[in-house]
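Re: that chain you flagged

S.,

Sorry for the slow reply, it's been a week of failed gels. I finally had a moment to sit down with the sequence you sent. For the record, here it is as I used it:
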Amino acid sequence: MKIDHQEQTNYFASMTDLLVGFLFVFVIMVAYFAYQVKDDQKTVTQLAEYLSAAQGERDTLVLAIVEDLQKLKIPAKIGSLSL
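Prediction finished late last night. Pasting the structure tokens below so you have them in one place:
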């Protein structure tokens, strides 16, 4: 008497492993992009601070130039303001 044992292949286990691997890669990608957004926001904040400081310096220089011109009796105008 011969007993023929036929093994059944269980594809569910390998499919689960693949899906867990894809999920792991997906989570890593989401974390990376979240870090990039945070880093970009930091750069934008630094740029806004720099531009604000530069604008203040520019205004100070323009006012100093206008004052010097007024001392020389030269009429000066800043934008729509006449000083």
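What I noticed first: Strands lie at 77-78, 81-82.

Talk soon,
D.
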